[in-house]
Amino acid sequence: MKLPEKVEVIEVCPRDGFQNIHDLIPFDAKVRIIKKLAEAGFKRIEAVSFVSPKAIPQMADAKDVMLAVKETLKEHGVSSVALVPNARGVETALECGVDELTYVISVSEKHNLANVRRTPAESLEQFKALIGEYGDKMRFRLALATALGCPFGEEIRTERVAEMARFGLELGCQEIMIADTVGMSNPARTHALMSALVKEFGADTFVMHLHDTRGLALANTLACMELGVHKFESAAGGLGGCPFAPGAAGNVATEDVLNMMSEMGIETGIDNDILHEAIELIEADVHAPIVSHMAHLYHKAPCR
Ligand code: COA
Ligand code: ZN
């Protein structure tokens, strides 16, 4: 099996992991967790989303959180990433000096309407306008949600995913994120989509965002690596899920991804002990079960 020698793991727990937690996480706890994650060696951390607080109440303090962690991220050489759905989000990100923005559009029409209250075509037009206006001030990446399965049963065609990726790249995006938002894919399906995309756009273009709802996220990760894809998002503790996607569960856990990579001799640059210190902070302050394999082994916690 030919695999990349190193991979980039992008930590998204503070955004994707926290957005789905019902109880508000104290501001200080969010800051503490993000600062600890910053010490672990990630090159990028998606720390917040600047979205409507009515849509995601947990992110109501996102601006203050970003301002509080920014210096620490910088000191550790970590680029800050924020998810935004509109111009207001971009403006806030600019005020905070965020390094990179994730703009999310679902391939599925129904999911895009549920998530951002507009059609994918409207989102694409808005994205074009945002890049036109802010593209020289900000690095944008386009995230294609539900690219590997729609929670509302819509068929996702490879050609449509490719078309949307092409649209983003032609606008000047350097990266396209491919999300299995609800963890519906399997290695064969993932391989089929990604081999078409890699063939047309190259492996460097893609960042994978794989949820582990059905336990297949690591298998899907490996299917991508066999195609040379080497950038993966994951969440410490396996937290995560989109509140507007029925059935969505956690992201693949960062500690499980790290374990798989290190067991295969693949470099990530991440300090496993510091990552587990961050997971302990998450366990202490975030009301969500830690669902990963490695957190249980590491802490010798009983099975839950
Ligand atoms: N930051 C802060 N507040 C925002 C905002 C932003 N980026 N965008 C909108 N708002 C506020 C508006 O000011 C308005 O507040 P008000 O009612 O007090 O005046 C309210 O949110 C609704 O704004 P509106 O422009 O009418 O948006 P909408 O109701 O049509 O919702 C989105 C559209 C995109 C803003 C909303 O659906 C959203 O934030 N979705 C994100 C979902 C998400 O994060 N999903 C998980 C990640 S994939
Ligand atoms: Zn997600």
Structural class: alpha/beta
Placed side by side, the strands forming the largest sheet appear as 1-8-7-6-5-4-3-2
What is the N-to-C succession of helices and strands?
A: EHHEHEHEHHEHEHEHEHHH
Q: Looking at the structure, what is the overall shape?
A: globular
How many domain modules? 1
CATH homologous superfamily caption: Aldolase class I
The count of strands amounts to 8
CATH architecture grouping: Alpha-Beta Barrel
User: Could you tell me the mean pLDDT?
Assistant: 96
Give a structural overview.
- This protein has 304 residues and is of the alpha/beta class.
- The chain has a single domain, classed as Aldolase class I (TIM Barrel).
- The protein has helices at 13-19, 27-39, 62-75, 87-96, 109-116, 120-134, 158-170, 187-201, 217-225, 254-263, 272-285, 293-299; strands at residues 8-11, 44-49, 79-84, 100-106, 139-145, 176-180, 206-210, 231-234.
- Strands 1-8-7-6-5-4-3-2 form an 8-stranded parallel sheet.
- The longest helix has 15 residues, at 120-134.
- The relative contact order is 0.16.
- Bound molecules: coenzyme A (COA) and zinc ion.
- Zinc ion is lined by residues 16, 179, 181, 209, 211, 240, 242, 251.
Task: Offer a few descriptive terms.
14% strand, single chain, binds coenzyme A, TIM Barrel, binds zinc ion, 44% helix, alpha/beta, 8-stranded parallel beta sheet, 304 residues
Question: Could you outline the blueprint of secondary structure elements for this entry?
Answer:
Blueprint lengths: L7 E4 L1 H7 L7 H13 L4 E6 L12 H14 L3 E6 L2 H10 L3 E7 L2 H8 L3 H15 L4 E7 L12 H13 L5 E5 L6 H15 L4 E5 L6 H9 L5 E4 L19 H10 L8 H14 L7 H7 L5
Helix pairs in contact: 2-3, 2-11, 7-8, 8-9
The structure holds coenzyme A and zinc ion.
Zinc ion binds next to loops.
